[in-house]
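Dear Dr. L.,

I hope this message finds you well. Following up on our conversation about the binding site, I have prepared a predicted three-dimensional model of the protein together with guanosine-5'-diphosphate. For your records, I am including the exact sequence and ligand specification that went into the calculation, followed by the structure tokens. Please feel free to forward this to your student if that is useful.
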Amino acid sequence: MKITSVEMVISAVKPEQYPAGDLPEFALAGRSNVGKSSFINKMINRKNFARTSSKPGKTQTLNFYRINEAFYFVDVPGYGFAKVSKKEREAWGKMIETYFTTRKQLKAVVLIIDLRHEPTNDDVMMYEFLKHYEIPTIVIATKADKISRGKWKQHAKVVKEKLNIVEGDELIIFSAETGQGKDEAWAALQKWI
Ligand code: GDP
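The resulting structure of the complex is given below.
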């Protein structure tokens, strides 16, 4: 994918703030610190475009990035921070649920997990939630550069089994460090663009 433009359009909390128009949207979900921003930055060839690490206390917003004036990446605040209060967690849950379940422009969710480890219970819950609402999901198993290539298959199998990945959902081994999996990720998104 040749990237000709990237624009940060809006940080939204409520549906009234979502951008108008009917460009396709891809939401990025994942545990805090898993490498969501690094994934976006690698995909669009920018070093520091997407905010890195959503630290607790930071405003929890959906960030809409318009790419090539053709589609949006929607950066969703990460989950799994132990230090987040119950109130904040509830607000996060409501915001995500509203967006994921009502947004017609949402074509697929890119779920980022860490290839090195078995998916967490939060990862499993997120995937189950997406399948409950029948939202097409692309699972990106990132940080592949941190384990030897010979172990990729075995780790991917653990991820597939733990998440119980359904037929039709792809798992792509990725590295924001080396660019591994970038072309496959674009190919997976391309069918909706
Ligand atoms: P986010 O909170 O999910 O947006 O995570 P970030 O993109 O900020 O990444 C968290 C940390 O993991 C940072 O230190 C990144 O440099 C590192 N990281 C992210 N992706 C990769 C990757 O593919 N390989 C390696 N080695 N490090 C990565």
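In brief: The longest helix spans residues 86-102.

With kind regards,
A. P.
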